Amino acid sequence: MASDVEIINTALRGLGAVSIAARTEDSENARKMNAVYDIFLKSLLRIHPWSFAKKETTLSRLTDSPVLDDYIYIYSLPSDFVRLNKTSVEPSYSHKIKGRKLYSNADSISIEYVYFNDDPSTYDDMFVDAFAARLAAELCYAITRDKDMVKIKWQEYASKLRLAQSQNGQEVSIDEFQQDQWLNSRY
User: Fold this and answer.
1) Among 57-71, 108-122, 159-173, which range has the highest average pLDDT?
2) Non-local CB neighbours of 181 within 8 Å, separated by 6+ positions
3) The CA-based dihedral angle spanning residues 64, 69, 71, 76, taken in that order and rounded to the nearest 10 degrees
4) What does DSSP assign to residue 3?
5) What's the pTM value of the predicted model, to 2 decimals?
6) Nearest-CA neighbor of 99 among 72, 65, 76, 117?
7) CA 34 to CA 125: how far, in whole Å?
8) Which of 38, 106, 107, 132 has the lowest CB atom count within 10 Å?
9) Are 132 and 11 in contact (CB under 8 A)?
């Protein structure tokens, strides 16, 4: 199980930089990492439906009248919402997200989503490796001032991210293909 300090120190070691003892310490490396840690974590969570960061919930309908396209209802997204994976509404594309609200014509809606999981002890080991590589790539120049190393760190990150996404994708079952009236009309 990783901790946020272990993830940061993995990134710093990859840059040949001095490790930190705590995120709260008053050091240049701690300040630089703290400034971007949550931003890049959220970004990394958003790019893939990570199995360790999924939740399901029924959304709360708001009383506001929609002003977006032809949607009848507005729903409030959860405060920890990062990315929508799927909805209970068929067809699943009959909604629109704008800001922190979901617009739909469905009178009730449940969603599966990626949430802002900030508990590193729940992360997959390959995600930890990819996240540390992302931190190293993003802060490489600020810490090392080595332009050539920056390119290498971005290549390492891309490689580790692909491996983490691939492994994560192999550990979930494939959603059953849903047939609808449009597809059945061919027969």
Assistant:
1) 108-122
2) none
3) -50
4) -
5) 0.85
6) 76
7) 21
8) 107
9) yes
Closest CA to 21 of 7, 31, 35, 9: 9
Q: Are 12 and 4 in contact (CB under 8 A)?
A: no
Q: b vs e for 81-94, b when ≥16 Cβ sit within 10 Å of the residue's Cβ? A: bbbbeebebeeeee
Report the alpha-carbon distance of residue 40 to residue 47 in Å, rounded. Answer: 11
CA distance 154 to 182: 44
Distance of CA 121 to the CA centre of its chain: 16
Distances (CA, A) of 164 to 8, 79, 112, 123: 18, 26, 21, 11
Q: Does the pLDDT of residue 173 top 60, yes or no?
A: no
Q: What is the pLDDT of residue 71?
A: 86
Q: Please identify which residue in the block is written with the tokens 């997200």.
A: 97
Summarize the confidence of residues 9-21 as an average pLDDT: 97
Q: What distance in Å separates the CA atoms of residue 43 and residue 41, rounded to the nearest whole number? A: 5
Residue with token string 């979901």:
102
What's the sign of the alpha-carbon dihedral 18, 19, 23, 24?
negative
Residue with tokens 């009848």: 72
- Distance, in Å, from the CA atom of 180 to the CA atom of 187, rounded to the nearest integer, reads 12
For the chain, domain boundaries: 4-49+118-170, 53-116
| Contact in structure between 85 and 49 (CB atoms under 8 Å) | yes
Q: Give the DSSP letter of residue 45.
A: H
